[in-house]
Amino acid sequence: MNKQFRLYLCLPILIAGLALLAACRGGDGVGPSPSTLPTDPAPQAPRPLSASEKMEVGEFVSQREVVEQQWDEFHQEFDEWSSGLTSCHESTAQDALRRFAGASSKVTQQARDLPRSRVTKEFADILIQAADAEETAFRRLRDRWQPGNISLFEAVEQERSNVAQAQNEAEDLSAELQEELEDASDPVDNQAREEFSAALDYISDDWEAFHDDYADLLQEASGLTLEEILARLDQLIQQFDAVFESVGELPSATAVEDMTEVIQDTAEGERTALISIHDILAQAVEEAAAVVEEDEEDTAIEVESGHTFEPLLNAMAPVIDNAVETLDEVNEAIKEILDRDAAEDLEKVQDFIGNYEELIEAWDEFHQGYNDWRRTEGGCDRSLVLSSLREFDRRAGEIGLGVQDLPQSGYLLPIYNLLAEAAEREEYAIRALRNSWQPFAIDAFIAVDRERDKINRLRREASIALQELLDRS
Questions:
Q1: CB hemisphere CA count around 411 (13 angstroms)
Q2: d(C-alpha 169, C-alpha 229), whole Å
Q3: Which of 158, 109, 133 is CA-nearest to residue 358?
Q4: What is the C-alpha to C-alpha distance for residues 335 and 337, in angstroms, rounded to an integer?
Q5: Contacts (Cβ under 8 Å, ≥6 apart) of 89
Q6: Is 117 helix (H, G, I), strand (E, B) or coil?
Q7: DSSP assignment of 66-98, as one string?
Q8: Residues 27-32: contacts with CB under 8 Å, at least 24 apart
Q9: DSSP letter, residue 225
Q10: C-alpha–C-alpha distance, residues 142 and 93, integer Å
Q11: Cβ count near 147 (within 10 Å)
Q12: Average pLDDT of the residues in 190-213
């Protein structure tokens, strides 16, 4: 052990000895007594409460018990009420949206299972496409929904509108085809179609011959005089009049009425154009002849040759092209009907319609369930919740009034201030919840729970302070 350490060890003993010696000398009256170090005064016991103070504290305790009982009952009833709002919880809405997305997927699968034969493929695809788009909208609603966000619901409504249009379109087209096939299965109608087809074949040959002859005129027009062109047009009009007459004799039975009307309108349009060209040229010939007669120059009529009127003759080309296209379309349509096994196709369409009706029933049921959920907000009665919050707001105000009526003088003021702050926080929290609450949102209740912790801490502090004051009685 070193010397320095021994010195530190002996130092307390040395100091104690010196103090003892000084005390002994002081007792002998020798020399002045050393000054002593100041010491803290011993804590004094709190002054007992006076009789009037005890009476005031007793009154405070009595009134506080009533307020605290109301406060505890308020918290208990609020907790029971809020925990019972399961239909308004965010998790409940998420569960519902998951169900709707699953139900939409089942509808889509049912749409994909529709018969897709040659005659029904178009109708099925219309419905499948609409179902796919609606399912996508419901999946997005399930995955991205947040309380208060209505854009995803609006997207669902848009797709539902598209679904309704698709259903109407598929229903109309399938019904129209069914009616057509039922007519095609009728022997009388089939006979009318066969007669129409045979007559149209005969007319088409003559019509095509007319078109060929007119094409020849166009090629030769540049080398012809105006009178020669007009003569050729006279012959073409006579030739087309025979076609026009045959067109007028086409069968007019209901089964072919539409096709007959199309052919007749086309023939009439072509004949009108042909006659208009002829009349213009005839007028030109008359005018040229008048000039010759007046000037007695034989060369005048030769100047007005086919070169001058080629654009006019070519104006017939689009009319002829339209007639050729119409004839081809009608011929193809009537032959397709005659070649079709109407009975077999009708059976396929009827099978499709049966499956379609089952799909629509399932689709409507799904939509109805979604409509009910949206209308009632999943069973979360908004008006009832707001009514309950107004009642809790009123009761929180009553608790605040009860606190304000507590005695506030003397030693009771700090305790009163703690309770007043707690009551003020209670009122503010409930009022904020009432103003901000909406279905499926939980943030507002979280804020109330946080305030509840601060409120209960203030109430505990007030209880402790009150107990200390009672201990002085």
A1: 23
A2: 53
A3: 109
A4: 5
A5: 440, 442
A6: coil
A7: HHHHHHHHHHHHHHHHHHT-GGGSHHHHHHHHH
A8: none
A9: B
A10: 9
A11: 12
A12: 91
